Amino acid sequence: MSRLLKTLPTLLLAATFAALGCHAQLPQPGTPLPPDLARRVEVLLRQKASLPPGSTIQVSPRTKSDFNGYDSISVTFTSIEGNVSHPINFLLSTDNKQLVQMTKFDISADPRTMVSDAGRPARGGPPSAPVLIVGFDDMECPYCARLNADIFPAITDRYKDQVRIVYRDYPIDQHPWAMRAAIDINCLAQQSPAGYWNAVDYIHAHAADIGTAPPAKDAKQGDAAPAKTLDIANSQLDNLVREQAAFQKADATKLNACINKQDTASIEESKKLGAALGVDSTPTLFINGDKFDGALPINFFFKMIDQALIAEGKTPPPPYVDPKAPPTPLVPPTQPAGK
Q1: Which region, left, alpha or beta, applies to residue 263 given φ > 0 means left and ψ of -120 to 50 means alpha?
Q2: DSSP state, 317?
Q3: pLDDT by residue (tens digit) across 164-190?
Q4: Integer Cα distance of 67 and 82 in angstroms
Q5: Is 207 in a helix, a strand, or coil?
Q6: Of 324, 313, 319, nearest to 131 (Cα)?
């Protein structure tokens, strides 16, 4: 027994070295690729990318990746003119036999949380509504006006409190009074969400007339229409918001101070958020985080909302039937043979 105990450490040490010797040594992360391997990578990518003669490829040292059996490398391309590309990431197998290009996406977050309704006046359901629609809106945009007048009322009528709708501001530079309108209605929203929505509805419905002075008393039929001006538009927007504030019994002093200040900070923050989410035109909608551009058909929106409800474990309303669709033709019953 004592002899066995004395020889056991020696046997364990020998077994350890034997075990180490049974496996091929893996490449160490952080070391440059051997020249022959770097050339294999370069030749493959040069062929796949159809690079012109004279361009060069630089391959980074390998680094540890999140995938077993693969390391990460990055490749940059330099043109003949000296322009250098952004690094392009690849996975290189530890046996140096496979090069893989793939993109890893994090889907752990709820898409609905990408853009919230926090601090915004809302229509439709409560904050707990299973579907949230956030629309990036421009008060001078005719397609936004169509959504506001037709699509959104149809949505709230069909889904009731299952859908919550909010607007975020995205006035585009080509619309001269859109920024003024956004600031004014947000001044009103601070005191009256109902007044905010009334102003939104009115401005969208009458956008074509804003900026035009009322016709003169002595105007005659056939006279040229008065020209639109930005000063007239700004004055009209201020006045209609003040009128709505008075109807809602809002604090006139507070409202006037906000209108007179014309602070664009919150609107610019909204535009910055939109740009980060890929918004570059209006209207743009997010239905539980799913992005859609433009005034699309109502049945398309119903389909997307139904899918969002199902994903939340809710039952959508009965299938939508377009009232304008032609009726299904009646098919006569099949007659038995011989009759």
Answers
A1: beta
A2: P
A3: 999 999 999 999 999 999 999 999 999
A4: 34
A5: helix
A6: 313
Q: Which residues pair with 93 in a beta bridge?
A: 70
CA-wise closest residue to 38 among 64, 61, 54: 61
Phi, psi of 216 (to 5 degrees): -65, 155
pTM of full prediction above 0.85: no
Distances in Å between the alpha carbon of 264 and those of 148, 187, 247, 261? Answer: 23, 11, 25, 9
Closest CA to 142 of 189, 206, 195: 206
Other CB atoms within 10 A of residue 25 CB: 7
| CA distance linking residue 38 with residue 96, whole number of Å | 10
Pairing of strands 88-93, 99-100: antiparallel
How distant is the alpha carbon of residue 64 from its chain centre? 32
pLDDT exceeds cutoff 60 at 15: no
Cis peptide before 283 (omega within 30 of 0): yes
Tracing tokens 């890929």 back to the chain, one arrives at 278
Secondary structure E strands in the chain: 56-59, 63-64, 70-78, 88-93, 99-100, 122-124, 131-137, 163-169, 284-287, 290-293
Q: Which two tokens mark 236?
A: 């009209």
In order of their start, the domains of the chain are 26-100 (3.10.450), 111-214+228-311 (3.40.30.10)
The DSSP call for residue 66 is S
Phi, psi values for residue 306, rounded to 5°: -60, -45
pLDDT value, residue 224: 62
Burial 107-120 (b: 16+ CB within 10 A, else e): eeeeebebbebeeb
The answer to whether 241 touches 188, Cβ cutoff 8 Å, is yes
pLDDT of 211 above 90: yes
